[in-house]
Amino acid sequence: MPSPLVHVITVSHNRRESTIAFCGSLARQIYSSFKLILVDDASTDDTVERVTKFAFCKHVCMGNGKLWWAGGVRRGLAYLKASRPAPDDIVLIANDDTTFDPDFLQKAVEEMKSHGRGVVLCASIRFVDTGGWTDGGTVCYWPRLTFKHYGRHVERIDCASTRCIFFWAGDLEIAGTFRPGLLRHYLSDYEFTIRARRNGLRLLPSRSVVGYGTENTTGFHKLPHGAFLDVLGQMFSPSFSANPRSLFYFVLLAAPGLWKIVGWFWALRTVCVFLLKASIYDRLRR
Hints:
alpha/beta; Spore Coat Polysaccharide Biosynthesis Protein SpsA, Chain A; nine-stranded mixed sheet; three-stranded antiparallel sheet
C-alpha cells in the first residue's frame, strides 16, 4: 500500500500556545504526508496568523465562535468530505492541546495498515498535568451510566474519546459525523464513537501510538462553590462535564432500549449530587 495522506482535524478557540505546540509537533514528524485541517472558532489571539507560518500543507476553516468541539469537528469533517479524499487516506481527529513524538504519525500509519479497513484506532494519551494516562477505548456501563476500562477484553470497547483517534477516509460514511445541535462539547465524542461501532467499525486501543495531553484544559469537572443561581448557571455551561443537557441527550441518542430510563435516573442523580455539593452542602458545612 502506498503512503496514505493523513488528514489531521483539530479545533481551536483562543488557545494560541496549545495550538502552536500542536502544530510544532506536526512540523517535526518523520512521516511528512499529512495535511492539517484547522477549524478556528473565531479566535482573537492571532492563532490563525501563527499557524499559517508553518510550512506544511494546511487549510483553515473559520467558525463563528459558537461551534465548540462537536461543531468544529463536524465542520472539519464536512470540508474533508467535500474535498473527496482517497479511500486509503487516513483521518486523525485530535485535541489541539495534544503533542507527540516525531515518529507518532509513522507508527499510527503502520498500525492502521496492519489492521486494514473498518477500524478506529485510539491512541494512548499521557496527561502531563496530572500524571495519568488513557489508552483511548472504554466501555459504557449503562446500568450505572459510568465508563469502565475494558480489562483484557478489547472486543468490549464501545466508545472512545476523540482526543486522538484514527480511521480510514473510506470509512467516513460509516463513521458519520458529530451532532452539535444536541451535544456541543462533552460526551459528543462518546456518542460519535458509539454510533460508529454500531455501524460496524471496530474500536481498537493502541499502546505504541502515544500522545501527550492535559486533562483540565478543555473544561471543568467540579462546580465552583457559590450562590445557588450562580452554581446553576455554571452547571449548564457546555464546558462543564456533567451538564444536564448533555447528559440527557447523550442517554437519548446512545443508550440502548430501556436503558434510557435507567440512564436518565443516574444522570439526574449525578446532577443533584454536583448541585448539592457546590451550593447547599457547602453552606451547611460552614
